[in-house]
Write a structure and sequence with these properties.
This protein has about 450 residues and is α/β, with parallel strands linked by helices. Helices cover about 40% and strands about 15% of the residues.
Amino acid sequence: MPLKGSDILKSLPKTNCKECGFPTCFAFAMKLATGGVKVDSCPYLSPEVKEQLEDALAPPIKLVTIGSGDRAINLGEEEVMHRHEKTFYHPPGIALLIKDTEGEGKIEEKIKKMTDLQFERVGVNLKADLLALYFESGDRKNFEALVKRVYEGTDLGIVLICEDMDVLFSARDICHDRQPLLYPITKDNIDESIPRIKKAPTPVGVRGEGIAQLIPLTSKLKEAGITDIVLDPGSKDLKEGLRDQTFIRRAALKQGFRPLGYPTIAFPCFMTQDRLRETLLAAAFITKYAGIIVLSEVERHSLYPLLVQRLNIYTDPRRPMMVEEKIYEINNPNESSPVLITTNFALTYFAVSSEIEASKIPSFLCIKDTEGLCVLAAWTTGKFVGETIAPFIKKSGIGERIGHKKLVIPGLMARIKGELEDELPGWDIIIGPREASEIPTFLPSLVEKWKSN
């Protein structure tokens, strides 16, 4: 449970000295509880009390950053078990596994896929995030060459997977400034690993044979001052994976159990040889609750649905998904092309635009800002009516780009035809289909009708 202001007040000097910038210690405590000020703002707290308060105020799941620059990904800091309770914040990183035993052509193909497989949806660029480099050959030079190639040839975040600690830390030194994840730290190698980790700190992946084995490992790392940790409970299949991921999340959020308060990693790539099943496993881990998901392969037909699922789950459910208010050109329109209008609710936009594209009719699609509401909801709230649509059409300049004055409105909005014609003198308001799926039939017949006239 989050620390309350009244709980924080018990640790403060209660002198109301105002040196923190607040009139009373209670006001400072309330602000501290909401994250609006740092513990250091109070000059009279002992180092021990500061440490206790910082630990108590820390997120129940530690924030861990892997990678650097624009391609860095943040994991953790989640606050709820279920998205509808509030929201999820940091989407899981999708990683592609590259083994150092794979041929030159295969390695090049995988790196190229990570660059090329990008998709735009709702104005967001969707793509995978990490390359997981796996030491399988037993040849140290071979693995180091792979790490160097990825480090120098891409800006992607890196996961280093290697059981040999000498090779692992040698590879770490090659790409240290990229903040790679070092995996696996286990009960057998943790003692020799701690001094090496502290020498050049980067995030570490802790692996246990079950959740119970993770607890002494994370505790020992924290005692050594190492807190950028990712957990792998060693799940072997989907059943174990969902059980372990849920247990870890619940222990951190509901019980405030700090030794498990870290993001996790899941390996669908090692759970099955079947690509379709691997994709389904990844989809399950996106939902519950992996911070990194490692795949053996990515293809357009399998990666895209995973990225869309991730986008949908990690979008704030309290805010509708919206697209920008503007005129969208579809199929290279010209001055004689139809003009359609709808709301900026993202699903409405994508449904309508994809059906216009399928019709092969060059068209202008005017998107009116309705604060993300669909057509009917926008109408009932007065955001998609004649007196709001008309100023948008006039301001947009679409009238100067076409040689006609015809505007197609959604069939569900037939009732606003008259008022829109009053607001837009000289315009012919055409009632379009009620469903987007009817557009590929509607538009060609409309254009043919115009030509015959």
